Amino acid sequence: MMKTVNLFHVKTHLSKLVDQIVSVEESEFVISRNGKPVARMTPIIQKKDVSCRIGIAEGEFTVPENIDSANDEITRLYYGNS
Questions:
Q1: pLDDT at 36
Q2: Which residues contact 39 (CB under 8 A, 6 or more apart)?
Q3: Quick one: which of 7, 73, 72 has its CA closest to 41?
Q4: Count of domains in the chain?
Q5: How many helices (H) and strands (E) does the chain have?
Q6: Phi/psi class of residue 40: alpha, beta or left (left: φ > 0; alpha: ψ in -120 to 50)?
Q7: What does the alpha-carbon distance between residue 15 and residue 21 come to, in Å, rounded to a whole number?
Q8: How confident is the model at residue 25, as a pLDDT?
Q9: Would you write out the chain's pLDDT as a tens digit for each of its 82 residues?
Q10: pTM of this structure
């Protein structure tokens, strides 16, 4: 539900309102002046930085020495007995 706050409240409690938006406690605020809506405060949707995904599981898995030993059989199964 959209919450309406007056401009004086925003001036006094801006940090708290921003925290509520960031923590998704509130999805947006409508800011009013003299009882009339004049602005809207909404979160900025951040795109996830995928560059830091590389190597995230480093050390979690071990690769066997013979990982490529079945490549010929897999190729044969995939393409058939040609």
A1: 95
A2: 30, 31
A3: 7
A4: 1
A5: 2, 3
A6: beta
A7: 10
A8: 87
A9: 678 999 999 999 999 999 999 888 888 999 999 999 999 999 988 777 766 777 778 888 888 899 999 999 999 999 987 5
A10: 0.53
Distance CA 29, CA 13 (A): 12
Kind of pairing between the strands at 29-33 and 36-41: antiparallel
Which CATH number characterizes residue 35's domain?
3.40.1620.10
Residue 63 structural domain: 3-79
Task: Look up residue 79 and give its amino acid.
Answer: Y
Owner of token pair 């044969």: 76
Proportion of the chain in helix, strand, coil states, percent, rounded to 5: 35, 20, 45
**Predicted pLDDT of residue 1:** 62
Structural tokens at position 82: 């040609």
